[in-house]
Write a structure and sequence with these properties.
Blueprint lengths: L3 H16 L9 E5 L4 E4 L18 E4 L4 E3 L8 H10 L5 E5 L4 H7 L18 E2 L7 H13 L6 E5 L3 E6 L2 H26 L19
Parallel strand pairs: 6-7
Antiparallel strand pairs: 1-2, 1-5, 2-3, 3-4, 5-8, 7-8
Organism: Polycladomyces abyssicola
Pfam families: Aldolase_II
GO biological process, one term: pentose catabolic process
Length: 216
């Protein structure tokens, strides 16, 4: 089996994502760059049908044109978005697309996510891209244009309007680590806003507020 250890690790990361509410049954997908022309990727419907309980043989080995070289399953319809990320960012080694519970609030409202936690500051902005339908060429093009503008920045994360999040880093484990950091940052942001609205935060402890308007 090609890339057995890497496919096994990808199964573990997918399971952790689902169990820790970093994605849901509506979807999510992960890819890892093995060479300039080969990638490993979670199959279509990994969440809806399998609840992210995958076996190494179900992880697909694909080329940059979407041809399946090995693996049991069908290619995710988000393949074009993953390839757009790799084309835009030559240093990218892994791409995670997910539907995290807390971060979806910002994605659905079209908000940029402020950094309340030091652990995410190295990302710079975490903005929400303008809406484009899931799996569409339009969405892949928007992702490419944005990531191209930040081609020298690794890691990078961006929210997809009404859809989810995209995290790009040099390795799978680093991308997963950043996904968790962002989700905790989203949770802290939401709780901080509630504290502010209740008048529990005053003076020097005033939180960095986010406004309820679209960033588009």
């Amino acid at each position: 089996m090609l890339y057995f250890e890497e496919r096994k690790d990808l199964c573990e990361v997918a399971r952790m994502m689902f169990d820790r509410l970093l994605t849901n049954a509506a979807g999510g997908n992960i890819s890892v760059k093995m060479s300039d022309s080969r990638f490993i990727m979670t199959p279509s419907l990994m969440s809806q049908q399998k609840f992210c309980r995958l076996k190494p043989e179900e992880i697909l080995v694909v080329d940059s044109n979407g041809n399946i070289l090995e693996g049991d399953g069908q290619l995710t319809r988000e393949f074009n978005m993953h390839m757009a990320a790799y084309d835009a960012m030559p240093d990218a080694g892994a791409v995670i697309h997910a539907h995290p519970k807390e971060s979806m609030v910002f994605a659905s409202l079209g908000l940029e996510m402020p950094h309340m936690c030091e652990a995410t500051r190295k990302l710079g902005e975490i903005r929400t891209l303008e809406y484009a339908p899931a799996t569409s060429k339009d969405l892949a093009d928007r992702v490419y244009a944005y990531l191209r503008s930040r081609a020298g920045d690794i890691p990078v994360a961006t929210l997809l309007r009404e859809h989810g999040i995209l995290v790009i880093d040099k390795t799978l484990r680093k991308a997963y680590d950043m996904l968790e950091r962002i989700e905790f940052n989203a949770y802290v942001n939401i709780q901080a806003k509630l504290f502010e609205l209740m008048g529990a935060v005053k003076g020097d402890n005033h939180v960095h507020s986010f406004s309820y308007h679209s960033e588009e």
